[in-house]
Write a structure and sequence with these properties.
CATH topology of the largest domain: Glycosyltransferase
Structural class: alpha+beta
Largest sheet: 15 strands, antiparallel
Number of strands: 30
């Protein structure tokens, strides 16, 4: 059985990532890209679906072998750490300002550190593991089970080029180590003794099976380069507020979730981690959502990462190029459009949460809010940089012409519900955002466009929302026209500037959401018994919406409440500072895919909002910051 979701840490090379459990087992790794089939998939099945554990043998429970796990009963309540009976402690942390993970095992005979990282890529992706003796003498073992294609392919393993190469179908992986390894029960295993001062290295490199196995490289030199690379990157961060450690870690996570060749940022590193243990709310998040655009741009620009922000903007413009009617809500990391959803029947799922899905069928849904996110991004580019590329402007014009013909249609909403389409209030609000930002762009750039037409459309949408989206019975805005259900996305009404934060309708809506969707101090997205989302079961509280409440309270001047809620949110990060998508405040467990970009974006933006003395991102997005007086359209793609 896999560990708890919060038991996992992330390592990555800005093209793919792996999840390492606190027992020294790598249980998930897709290669060569985030959305590729996996080399290790024990996270969604069993150890036989692929994993790699390095740990002290003395710390293993009686009768267990490397790669073992606690019973299902124990694992439901306790962290999955090796040797709860015999190991003194198992602690871990990231090395300062890096994505290099260090797990320290304290045993009765001594202590060892396991250092895990992925070198910033020059060719093929690699996972490097270094075992370092800290004190005494500790007997350790490595248990490597390679299973390609989500655990479905048992590879052919042979010795080659001073290492061990596993080949299966189109995939291959080569292991180099200074520890003797041998085959045993369709796995590659080895035992070794680590004395104080010893260092043993392991490197596993994925490569296409038709190419020759790679040669060994210097793992220690690679560690130095990797640490230096991450520290150099973080050194550019401009945030120096009271939550610097959390903001810095969140920025490192966002960078690790960035696909460097294109600038796209995946929503999470994993697929099918459930929103309810044992439930069906399991989705593949290894893709890039347009909805993340303005949040990501704001977070990167505020933190001083203009290159990353511009790369994300360029990825977005390339991805949406073509007919506006073909606009998707998400794309592959390279801009791919076909993200066919499949269910992997041979995987039992994380703690029997099925189905396990790859691909995402929501890619062809109609979600009107993405038009607002894209146009808000273009407006942010002008407001923050004083210019917009010519292709960005042309893209904006084409999208707006199409939106003018479809804004009054029902859609699937930002939560990608698989029930019946509705006139979701958030979708209409964001359609207004698109038109409002387009009007501002035209005005700022002094362009020869039909301003009256767009101003009239903005007014029409605004009136439509205020009359049909408001419920006198509920005394607030509601999830959809004609509904009495509440939805946390309504918190964006003041944040995007649709209505002022002190408008009595906004205040009433925030209070209603705070009261109705609160679940032990955190917010639900909506109540599943009030909303037909086409799925069975329930889900945890949604961390991003709780951060939205932080922003809304800050805009309303309720800073003390906002700060208290923010502190509550950051208190549920795991031991290495990571957040998943959702949280179960009753059982105090993380839920959903991890680490979740949306959650870390919410943390960063909320921290800047609370630190910015009413000049932070939430105050800017709602229109309280003056816009540049002389922006321009650039002919290039900057």
């Amino acid at each position: 059985m896999a560990g708890r979701i919060e038991d996992y840490a992330l390592i990555g090379d800005t093209e793919t990532a792996a999840l390492v459990c606190n027992d020294g087992s790598i249980d998930f790794w897709a290669a060569p890209r985030f959305d590729s089939p996996t080399v290790f998939c024990a996270l969604l099945g069993t150890a036989d679906h692929g994993h790699w554990q390095i740990a002290p043998t003395e710390a293993l429970p009686d009768g267990a072998t490397p790669g073992g796990a606690p019973t299902a009963e124990d694992a439901a309540e306790e962290p999955r750490t090796v040797g709860l009976e015999q190991a003194t402690t198992v602690t871990r942390s990231y090395r300062r300002d890096t994505m290099v993970l260090e797990t320290v095992f304290e045993t009765p005979t001594g202590s060892v550190a396991l250092i895990d990282f992925m070198p910033i890529r020059s060719h093929h992706p690699s996972v490097v593991r270094i075992v370092e003796g800290r004190s005494g003498s500790v007997r350790c073992s490595s248990h490597l089970t390679i299973r390609f294609d989500y655990g479905s392919i048992v590879p052919w393993v042979r010795s080659v080029n001073g290492g061990i190469t596993a080949v299966g179908g189109a995939d291959a992986a080569t292991l180099h180590s200074d520890v003797d390894m041998h085959g045993e029960d369709l796995a590659t295993v080895g035992e070794f003794t680590v004395d104080e001062g010893d260092r043993f290295t392991f490197s596993l490199t994925w490569h296409p099976s038709h190419q020759p196995p790679p040669h060994a490289f210097d793992a220690h030199a690679s560690l130095d380069r990797t640490e230096g690379w991450w520290r150099d990157w973080l050194r550019r961060c401009s945030y120096q507020g009271p939550w610097a450690d959390h903001v810095h870690r969140s920025l490192l996570v966002l960078k690790a979730l960035t696909y460097a060749p294109t600038g796209g940022i995946v929503a999470a590193a994993t697929t099918s981690l459930p929103e309810e243990i044992g439930g069906e709310r399991n989705w593949d998040y290894r893709y890039c959502w347009l909805r993340d655009a303005s949040f990501t741009l704001t977070a990167f620009l505020d933190a001083g990462y203009e290159r990353e922000a511009m790369a994300w903007g360029r990825w977005l413009r390339r991805a949406v190029a073509g007919s506006p009617s073909d606009l998707q809500i998400m794309y592959g990391v390279g801009g791919e459009r076909r993200l066919t959803e499949l269910e992997l029947s041979w995987l039992p799922g994380y703690r029997e949460s099925t189905p396990v899905r790859i691909g995402n069928g929501a890619h062809d849904q109609l979600q009107l809010d993405v038009y607002g996110e894209v146009l808000d991004l273009f407006h942010t580019l002008i407001a923050r940089r004083g210019r917009l590329s010519s292709d960005g402007f042309d893209t904006g014009r084409a999208l707006m012409e199409h939106l003018a013909t479809i804004w009054d249609q029902p859609d699937d909403g930002l939560w990608e519900v698989r029930g019946q389409r509705q006139h979701f209030v958030h979708s209409k609000v964001m359609a207004w955002v698109a038109v409002d930002r387009w009007v501002r762009i035209i005005e700022m750039l002094h362009l020869d466009e039909d301003l009256d037409r767009w101003r009239h459309l903005a007014s029409e949408i605004h009136h439509d929302v205020c009359t049909k989206g408001w419920s006198d019975e509920r005394g607030s805005f509601t999830q959809a026209y004609g509904s009495t259900a509440l939805d946390a996305s309504l918190l964006l009404i003041p944040i995007v500037g649709f209505l002022p934060a002190d408008d009595e309708r906004v205040v009433a809506t925030v209070e209603a959401i705070h009261a109705d969707l609160d679940h032990h101090g955190f917010l639900l997205r909506y109540r599943t018994d009030h909303t037909d989302d086409g799925l069975e079961g329930e889900e945890g509280t949604f961390l991003l919406t709780t951060f939205w409440l932080v922003e809304a309270l800050a805009l309303m001047g309720r800073t003390d409440e906002a700060t208290e809620l923010f502190e509550r949110c950051i208190s549920v990060t795991n031991d290495v500072g990571l957040l998943s998508e959702e949280y179960d405040p009753v059982n105090e467990h993380q839920l959903g895919n991890v680490p979740q970009a949306f959650s870390h974006l919410g943390l960063i933006i909320s921290a800047f909002t609370l630190t910015g003395d009413r000049a932070g991102p939430a105050f800017r997005r709602c229109g309280m910051t003056p816009e540049p007086t002389d922006p321009e359209v650039e002919p290039d793609d900057s």
